[in-house]
Amino acid sequence: MANDVNFILDPRLENDTILIKDLKLSKLLLMNNKLYPWLILVPKKHNITEIIDLTPPEQQTLLSEINQTSTLLQKIYNPDKLNIAALGNVVSQLHIHLIARYKNDITFPKPVWIDDRKEFYSEKEIADIKKKIIR
Amino acid sequence: MANDVNFILDPRLENDTILIKDLKLSKLLLMNNKLYPWLILVPKKHNITEIIDLTPPEQQTLLSEINQTSTLLQKIYNPDKLNIAALGNVVSQLHIHLIARYKNDITFPKPVWIDDRKEFYSEKEIADIKKKIIR
Q1: ipTM for this prediction
Q2: Is the predicted pLDDT of residue A58 greater than 80, yes or no?
């Protein structure tokens, strides 16, 4: 999958997240908010806002990266439920949220986007998460 | 794709929606709330709560049904943005929301799940939507 030279990560996504890893199609980002285990996939494609804007092979890769990321979240966090969503009402650049939810997290059963609270990770916590995800 | 004889639509989904059509894998439902053009896909599989619980061929069919439904929503409603999500915090039976959003809808840019308001469709409106979707 050729890299799209015109792709630039939206500055709001860049600001809110930490790069974990470049996958084949997407950047795998960690939302810098320790209230929820929350990863984001951003296909490295210029000017794409909807999943159906991707070509069929890109969609296949995205599905596979969603599966990989889901499996990771389940293995690392053992959540009660995954929340997977492509919304993009604020940042229109296509990005897929993958969030590990617990029945006793502070917002359950409501979706996390209603909650404006944020707690940043420490450098040490980020390094630990990266190690768990990348190995 | 063999029908799963043990599949029963969750009673809350059944209560909140209108059946539009049985697709190969999923039931295509219309959320009975005219505040948002809102369709739901429910794979007819027993005891499945996550996309990764589906087999690879089932996932392929789901992706294709998400594409079909997205195209339909764009064609019929010409939205500013699609919102596609598998949450399942309240109803754990796997179901995918596909919602046509407008920059001037009553909740934008927030996700629709924060809004408890509901306005039911009339019989005539339901018949019109079915006609548009099924043709």
Answers
A1: 0.96
A2: yes
pLDDT exceeds 90 at position A5: no
Q: How far apart are the first and last CA of chain B?
A: 23
Q: B110 to chain A: nearest residue by CA?
A: A89
Q: How far apart are CA B104 and CA A99, in angstroms?
A: 28
Read off the pLDDT of residues B63-80 as tens digits, 9 standing for 90 and up.
999 999 999 999 999 999
Q: Distance (Å, rounded) from C-alpha A102 to C-alpha B14?
A: 25
Taking CB atoms and an 8 Å limit, are A82 and B86 in contact across chains? yes
Instruction: Please judge whether B85 and A85 are an interchain contact, meaning their C-beta atoms are less than 8 angstroms apart.
Output: yes
pTM: 0.97
B35, B117 Cβ separation under 8 angstroms? yes
pLDDT interval class at B1 (50, 70, 90): low
Q: Please report residues of A whose CB lies closer than 8 A to that of B100.
A: none
A22, A31, A130, B49, B75 from A12: Cα distances, Å: 18, 11, 21, 31, 30
